[in-house]
Amino acid sequence: MNKSVIVPSHESYFLEQGYFFALGFKEGWMVGRVKQKTWATLQPWALGPVAALGNLAAWDEIQDANSRHYLEPYNPDIIYHTFFGVTPTQAQIKLQYPVRTDIGSMLSIARTLTDGVGIIDGYKSPFWGPYSEATELFTVKDQYPAFNIYNPTNDAIVNAMLNFDQRQYTYEIIKDRNLIKDILVGTRRVKKYTMGTLPLQMDTPGWLVDRINKLDSGLLKYSNDVMAGVL
Amino acid sequence: MLNRDQLKTVTMAVTAADATIGSNVPVNMRRFIYRTKFINTLNGDNLLTLGKRENGAGATTVVDYIQAAVQYQMEVDPEELHDDSAPLYVVEGPAQNPLITPVGASVVRAQCSALGTGFLTLWYIDAPA
């Protein structure tokens, strides 16, 4: 059955202006509210040819000739919220976020590109959507993912491609501790997103730590204490 | 799924020399061929060889054969296109991004048997997936 018949569109996962959200870093949660929203697409992104039973020689950081990453906000005032689909259907995408950190593994040992662990293929996330929730990426300045492919078939893939659908948000950092507690563990329906893998590997970018500390130097620790049930 | 308003057609005379049929497949797209029609203009039997060259390949890869026994015989496949029709053949265009330069064009090729001539029409859609 066509996946679009049984799965709601990924577009329902995008945030609206005024929504609260929380991004989980190693040092704590950055809690914010969406101020403005706009859209962007990258379609298609060619990952290129992949030999039968082969993979890309290098991880693709989705960047231009000047090393500007398409999935990394160019401005710290903006957050990117992205989903993607895959073609051809059999291409098995492996994801690192942040780079050199595997996402989707079930084992603690380093995964290989051929082990079938942590793959997103076109069955799971079709090129024209609806995209799998597993492809959801929140990215902030200084953080971006990297992609590789394994071709599990005995025929070469001429050109594996990704289709990115993105919303871009400007945001306000929340400093009200009661509101932060309500957002993180209360009944309020809020988008919470763990940055990277578990256990948390992604450091809060320095510029973001500075912004949060300017508001309240204990906010990141406070958010972790709230989540830990200490407060 | 077939979207009828995206369908394009190309008609070309085919000779005994292997030749390109239609335009280059766009970069980062695939040419989904949904329907073929071959009219044999040779006074006798004629075998059309349908092929492709992907990424600037110097040799043609045979995709299929279409046989006509007598002059003016017309072979159409399929008879009708439906919304859920599957493409008969796929020819893949080259990859391109800011760090990948296309290595060469991808095209459909065709030729008739020795001394043979005919007309080939293709119905196709160019799309990434």
Q: What does this 3D model show about the protein?
A:
The complex is a heterodimer of chains A (231) and B (129). With 231 residues, chain A is of the alpha+beta class. Chain A has one domain. Chain A is 14% helix and 32% strand. In chain A, the strands form 2 sheets. Chain A has a 6-stranded mixed β-sheet. Chain A has a 3-stranded antiparallel β-sheet with strand order 5-4-7, with no helix packed on it. In chain A, a hairpin with a 2-residue loop joins strand 1 and strand 2. Chain A starts with a helix and ends with a helix. The model of chain A has no long low-confidence stretch (mean pLDDT 93). Chain B has 129 residues and is mainly beta. Chain B has one domain: Jelly Rolls (Sandwich), CATH 2.60.120. Chain B is built from no helices and 9 strands. Chain B has strands at residues 8-14, 19-21, 30-40, 46-53, 61-68, 74-77, 89-92, 107-111, 118-127. The model of chain B has no long low-confidence stretch (mean pLDDT 95). Classes of the chains: A alpha+beta (231), B mainly beta (129). The interface between A and B is medium-sized, with 20 and 16 residues.
